[in-house]
Amino acid sequence: MRPKTLVLGVISLSVATIVLALIFWPRLPSSIVDAEPSIVVQKPQSSAVSGEKSKKTTVVPGPTRRDQNVPESLESIAEVSNIDLEADLKWLREQTTKDVQSAYSQLFEHLGLTDFEEAALSEFLVEAWMRGTKMRNYHPEPMDEQDRLDGIESIIGAGKLETFLTLEQNLRKYREVEKIRSLLERKGAPLSYPQREGLLEILIDVRVRVEAFANPNINHETIEAFESLLDLLDENDRLVLELAPSVLTSKQVQYMFDRYQALSYKRWGAFDAQKRARANDPDGEHLPFSYPHD
């Protein structure tokens, strides 16, 4: 099935888009609309032609050229692996820190944290996410949920912990608002604080409405089920765009439409490619489906 143009019922827009490659904390609520496939992290590799870094992927890192040319000495191989691991972990921590700051900044505001609490909690959340990461030569012992809760409580206190957990249920929507805020700022149409708050309310409200039609036990390994998931994602975006004019200007809504329409095309394009891969593989029915989030 090909992507469908997002048609709005209350506004008319012209045709024109919505990971870090991180393992999200296991306790975060998964839903049909917000579900993200399990992914692993790959550090960008240097281009042999331009020297520029390639885009991050969600593919398990295979042997690099350097790995393939190392001596057979186990000591030498271990030395190279340790060097690679150190560089990878440095890159991963930098990217995780940026993602935590982006995802949680508005949530911290709503929680009313002091500067000290915010800095300490950000550092702790980065460590928690790092402990949930799987990549080549790095398989740390995961932090269990009770340890995570104890760590958060030690920083912000028991009184704020419950509020934090309630707000964290909508973490993906906080992240979406931050992505839209960054997009509109680059386009010269920045969000005001009231607009940002209003957009967050719309995203949360639409999530609840769309999830009412979702089957949480659906098997996403089937083509039909994954196609249904993509339809729900398109419907989610359409509803958001219908409500967006209540808090955003027409120009801001246009930029959001362009973003969502482009992402819809990317999702359906990836889906078609994965269906072809399944058809050409004897064990293709077991290949997992996934879709781009940005």
Tell me what the structure shows.
The chain has 294 residues and is mainly α. The protein is built from 9 helices and no strands. The chain has helices at residues 65-68, 74-111, 115-131, 145-156, 158-168, 171-186, 193-211, 223-243, 250-279. α7 (193-211) runs antiparallel to α8 (223-243). The longest helix has 38 residues, at 74-111. The chain is globular and about 50 Å long.
Overall mean pLDDT: 75
Strand percent estimate:
under 5%
- What characterizes the major β-sheet? none
The count of strands amounts to 0
The helix/strand order is HHHHHHHHH
How much helix is in the residues? Answer: 55-70%
Q: Which ranges are low-confidence, i.e. pLDDT below 50, for 5 or more consecutive residues?
A: 7-33, 35-81
* Rounded Rg: 21 Å
How widely separated are the two ends?
Answer: 21 Å
Explain briefly what this protein structure is.
By secondary structure, the chain is mainly α.
How does the SSE layout of this entry go?
Blueprint: H1 65-68, H2 74-111, H3 115-131, H4 145-156, H5 158-168, H6 171-186, H7 193-211, H8 223-243, H9 250-279
Keywords:
294 residues; 0% strand; mainly alpha; 57% helix; globular; single chain; 9 helices
